[in-house]
Amino acid sequence: MKLAAIDIGTNSTRLLIEDYRKNNFFPLERKMEITRLGRGLNDNNTISEDSAKKTLDTLITYIKLMKKNGVKKYRAVGTSALRRASNSREFVSMVKENSGISVDIAGESEEARLSFYGAVKGMGLDSGRSNYKSESKILVVDIGGGSSEFILGDMNCNTDLIESVDIGCVNLSEKYIDSDVPDAGRLNKMNYYIRGKVNGTINKIKNFNISTIIGVAGTITTLAAIDLELDKYNSDLIHGHVLSLKRIDEIYKFLCGLNLEDRKKVAGVDVGRADVIIGGVSIIIEVLELLGYKYINVSEKDILDGIIYTLVDF
After folding, report:
1. Cβ-contact 275, 179 below 8 angstroms
2. Phi and psi dihedrals of 154, rounded to 5?
3. Residue 92 phi/psi, 5° resolution?
4. CB within 8 Å of 132: residues ≥ 6 apart
């Protein structure tokens, strides 16, 4: 049976099509477009006409791909930008009318659970396929465009803690980063702001014995692509890649020394992500430093895969 998942995020809109056969998933299509639905939300709390149109155009393209692949069942999920925007209902109605796609707006907890489900199963850490002790905890960090989710749980996908913090690569970068070489003073203010936002969550996480930290979504996969010096994106190489805090810090300092046009030329950086990558990397650095961890595992499997998994009972 052909299944599909759509993730309508603050920064990008993504599609996953898989063939589900005999309790196994076989990927057919995995697409991503930078649609920036959350552009300007910090200023007026509304989705702009341009962002709405770009997202709709992408969704129409995805529907055609789904029909071409014979998809029988799908789910489209909107996250932070649609939770925040005052005109989200109008956007959802417009999408339904023009594409036929019904969009579910996921609450913070549901978004976090879907990301955790996708990451843990996708990394092979779930019960029956892992040598991890059942008492060990897995922390999934999902850096989005408008919010960051922290989900702590076990290999059976039972969650002990779900926290959503309203900082992401888009809203941070819009507030602190411009097209020139970032100002050191503004970077310091941004990092101080991040610490203040995540400190309470980090203190809760410290009460648990964490065996593994997994990073999901565009910021962490872009970091892996930069580390691997990939001129062309390769999900097979990125999935399971391990990044050290030292290396992340080196990449961060390198990116902070470049203006926007030069960041676009860095191997591994999608041109549509170049203006927001520094804000996202800053979150990862602050989280690892506050937790006292030196490594993070990179997962290509995330909320998209979590959505797919919920479409079947396996």
Report:
1. yes
2. -115, 180
3. -60, -40
4. 125, 138, 155, 211, 212
pTM: 0.81
Domains of the chain, start order = 2-106 (3.30.420.40), 125-303 (3.30.420.150)
| DSSP label at residue 183 | P
Residue 255 host element (H or E): helix 245-256
Q: Kindly tell me the burial class for residue 180, based on how many C-beta atoms sit within 10 Å of its own C-beta (0-12, 13-18, 19 or more).
A: exposed
Mean pLDDT of all residues in 31-42: 86
* Chain-centre distance for alpha carbon 82: 15
CA distances, 139 to each of 33, 112, 144, 153 (Å): 27, 11, 16, 7
Task: Please tell me the distance from the alpha carbon of residue 120 to that of residue 81, in angstroms, as a whole number.
Answer: 25
Model pLDDT for residues 258-291, shown as the tens digit of each residue: 999 999 999 999 888 999 999 999 999 999 999 9
Rounded Cα–Cα distance for residues 118 and 27 (Å): 14
Q: What is the pLDDT of residue 152?
A: 95
* Whole-number percent of the chain with pLDDT over 90: 66
Residue type, 289: E
Reported confidence tier of residue 132, pLDDT bands at 50, 70, 90: very low
Mean of per-residue pLDDT scores for the chain: 90
Where do we find the tokens 């999900």? 235
Model confidence pLDDT, tens digit, residues 191-203 = 999 999 999 999 9
Residues in contact with 304: Cβ distance below 8 Å, sequence separation at least 6, in sequence order = 5, 7, 14, 15, 16, 30, 118
| pLDDT (0 to 100) of residue 235 | 86
Provide the angle, in degrees to the nearest 10, between the axes of the packed helices 169-176 and 184-205: 150
- Out of 80-89, 124-133, 171-180, the most confident range is 80-89
Residue 80 CB partners (closer than 8 Å, separation 6+): 9, 10, 38, 111, 144, 145, 146, 147, 166, 168
CA angle centred on 76, ends 104 and 218, rounded to 5°: 110
* Token couple for 226: 């930069």
